């Protein structure tokens, strides 16, 4: 195999291992997010450990919310070499900042939902009281 890469897994195995569709893996390869995956004599992809490390890395960055465009830039910078390590670090710092901001918003939302759940009966009781008052007024008007 080219580059001394040892076959480790088929696309089906990689798909299952990383809980990704085969289409996603092909798409990432087509975009250049993954290295060119070696093919066997039948034309099927043979993923090496190196390739699977890239799958893990790209998936982790996608889960962190990094856009495909930012990932393409990040991978390009990585492949261009060490001279741009600060640019790559900046992309990661920016993504972490976005993720922390999202976590803050999610925590606020969870706190609000917790409050609503903890006081659910109070709100329901108030609604029921309002309904009774409304019904009483309607009944008084009918008399």
SSE string, helix = H, strand = E? EHHEEHHHH
Low-confidence stretches: none
Structural class: mainly alpha
Share of β-strand residues: under 5%
Radius of gyration, in Å, reads: 27 Å
Q: Measure the end-to-end span.
A: 93 Å
**Helix proportion of residues, in percent?**
over 70%
Largest sheet: 3 strands, antiparallel
* C-alpha geometry: elongated
Arrangement of strands in the largest sheet: 1-3-2
Counting DSSP E segments of at least 2 residues, the number of strands comes to 3
Count the DSSP helices: 6
The pLDDT mean sits at 88
Keywords:
three-stranded antiparallel β-sheet, mainly alpha
Provide an overview of this structure.
By secondary structure, the chain is mainly alpha-helical. It has 6 helices and 3 strands; from the N terminus they run E-H-H-E-E-H-H-H-H. A hairpin with a 5-residue loop joins strand 2 and strand 3.
Short note summarizing the structure:
With 143 residues, the chain is mainly α. 72% of the residues lie in helices and 5% in strands.
Helix and strand layout, with pairings?
Blueprint: E1 9-10, H1 11-18, H2 22-31, E2 38-39, E3 45-47, H3 49-63, H4 68-80, H5 85-118, H6 120-142
Antiparallel strand pairs: 1-3, 2-3
Helix pairs in contact: 4-5
């Amino acid at each position: 195999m080219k580059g001394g890469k040892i076959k480790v897994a088929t696309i089906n195995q990689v798909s299952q291992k990383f809980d990704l569709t085969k289409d996603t893996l092909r798409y990432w390869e087509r975009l250049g997010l993954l290295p060119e995956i070696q093919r066997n004599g039948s034309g099927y992809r043979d993923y090496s450990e190196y390739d699977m490390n890239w799958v893990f890395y790209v998936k982790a960055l996608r889960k962190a919310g990094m856009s495909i465009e930012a990932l393409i830039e990040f991978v390009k910078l990585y492949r261009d070499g060490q001279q741009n390590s600060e640019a790559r670090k900046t992309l990661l710092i920016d993504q972490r900042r976005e993720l922390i901001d999202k976590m803050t918003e999610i925590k606020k939302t969870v706190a609000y939902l917790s409050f609503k759940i903890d006081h659910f009966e109070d709100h329901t009781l108030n609604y029921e009281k309002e309904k009774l008052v409304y019904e009483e007024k309607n009944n008084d008007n009918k008399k």
